[in-house]
Amino acid sequence: MKKTFVLVVLFILPIVAYLFFASGINNFGRLPILTQDIGDISKIDNNVALQDKITILGFLGNDLGNQKGIAFNLNQKIYKRFYEFNDFQFVMLVPKGTESKVAALKSELGNLTDVTKWNFVYGEKEQIQRFFDGMNTDLFLDGNLATPYVFIIDKDRNLRGRTNDEDEGTKFGFNATSVAELNNKMEDDVKIILAEYRLALKKNNANKK
Question: What's the pTM?
Answer without folding.
Answer: 0.83
